[in-house]
Structures are given as structure tokens and as C-alpha cells.
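Researcher: Checking consistency across runs. Here is ATP-binding cassette domain-containing protein again:
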Amino acid sequence: MGLLFEFLDIAPEIAEPAHPEALPEAIRDGIRFEKVGFQYPGSPEQTLSDIDLSIRPGQVVALVGINGAGKTTLIKLLCRLYDPVQGRITLDGIDIRQYSPEQYRSLFSVIFQDYSQYAASVKENIHFGDIASPGERLSIMGAAINAGADGFISRLAQGYDTPLTRMFDEGHEISIGQWQKLALARAFLRKSSFIILDEPTSSLDPEAEFEMFENFRERISHRGALMISHRLSTVRMADYIYVMDQGRIVESGTHQELIQKEGIYYTLFSKQAFHYKDAEAWQ
Ligand SMILES: Nc1ncnc2c1ncn2[C@@H]1O[C@H](COP(=O)(O)OP(=O)(O)OP(=O)(O)O)[C@@H](O)[C@H]1O
């Protein structure tokens, strides 16, 4: 089933439309959530309410909020692992329930916090999960460069052929941050239209995080990106930020707009900004 399901062992019932729409060849407007509500089957309460959100091609969108706010649930609906109970989600104006679920999901590369680590070579760790045909694949090295992984890979004794983990006699252990970069390279390798990152930088030190997101917008090119992060330094480089609380979007805007508002976003990140000692964080 590809990269998307690497991390998810759930497969709820999702209906296949009788006459599916063809996916757009090039995405123009992107994804829109329109007044979306959701309740997990068997759950007594609504997990998402009244969600309005959009992700356009080439745009980096961030989702922030305290634990349990509903961020991962929103991603599950975005990737059509569940359908809304109210409202709708559209891709270029068409309800996503009108597309074949499998084709629709192929638009997404998702990296969750507990991304996979394969006891295999660096090269194999990047191209596992690639469901595109060989002719369609971007080069493994290109994807690694895009993910900021090429530097450490080229310093390994056998470069891209280096076996990873000590399960091999000559296997190398790499750091969590380096595994994270390989997961990002895996996402870049696929010709997906959207990259979804759920806490992508939790294990990265500030320097590695800076490398990973330096010129990120240019590196995603025409793709749309949605990231969940608890780190101000990651979130503030997004084009647009949604703040969630108890299943609702309670604030949205650019970093600057949200700081000026002095609301929930401001409160969430004020302690972190103090640690950054970085005046820019507040601009
Ligand atoms: N499969 C499920 N069935 C029922 N309730 C669920 C399920 N998964 C999550 N929930 C509930 O939905 C709410 C939102 O959870 P979700 O994981 O979307 O939050 P989150 O904002 O991503 O949190 P975190 O920052 O901790 O990852 C929580 O109250 C959670 O307990």
C-alpha cells in the first residue's frame, strides 16, 4: 500500500465510488476542508468540529496545538483513512469521496514520528515504499540532497551502499536525526503531490532542524506540505499556520499575524522563544 500505510495499522471501511473521478493531472487549487466534523466510531464525543483549512500546491502549512487537540485525526481524514461525518474535503473543488481511495492516497507521502527504520542499506532505506515505476522515480541521490541527508551519507564508509544497524556485521548505527532525514528523502523520492510531516523534527538538534528546513519551500517545489510541530522554530517558517484546540481551529494566520494577535499561538510559543534568544522569532 506504499509509504502512507507504513505506520498505520488501521484500515477502516472507506467506500469506493461506483464511477470514480480521474485525479487531476496537475493540481491547481489543492485541498480544502469545508466545515468538517468527525467522530471516531464508538466514541461518545466529536473529535473534530467545523474545520476550515486549505493546502495549496507549493504551500507549507503548519498545524499546532496541545496534545489531543485533533491534529493527527485531521491528517487521517486528509489521507482518507476516515470520512467526515459533517462537511466535506475537496481536491480541486471535487469531494474526495468521488475519487478512488487508493488513487487519492497515492497523492500523499506521510512521515509520522515513528517512521520505519529498515535493517538494509542507505539506498534501500530511501527507496522502500516507493510505489512509482522505475521510470518515474527521481534519483535516490536527488531525494537525499533535497532532504539534507546527502552530506552524512557521503561521509559513511560505503556511501549509499552502507548497511544500516548493527544487525549486519559491518552495519552502521546512525542518529535519530539522520534516520529522520532518510524518512524525508523517502517522501521526496515519491512523486507525491503532498508531503505530510507529523512531528518531523522532534529528534533534531537546532542546527539539523535548520538544515532540514532551509529553503524547504523551494525544495518541495510544486508540492503542498502540511506539518504538525510543537517547535516554534519549525512552525514559524510555514506560509500559513492553523492553531487547534479541542478539535477546532481557534486561530489561523501567518507567524507574524499570530504573534501580533497575542492569543493562543503567542502563549504556546512564548516560553520557547525565550529559550531561542532569537529576536527574529517574534517578528
Ligand atoms: N482511534 C481512536 N478512537 C477514538 N478516539 C480517538 C482515536 N484516536 C484518537 N482519538 C481521540 O481523539 C482526540 C484527538 O487525538 P489526536 O491524536 O488527533 O490528537 P493530536 O492533536 O494529534 O495529539 P498529539 O499532539 O498528542 O499527537 C483525543 O482525545 C484522542 O483520545
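Researcher: Does this match what you'd expect to see?
Model: One thing to look at in this run: Confidence is low (pLDDT under 50) at residues 1-7, 129-133.
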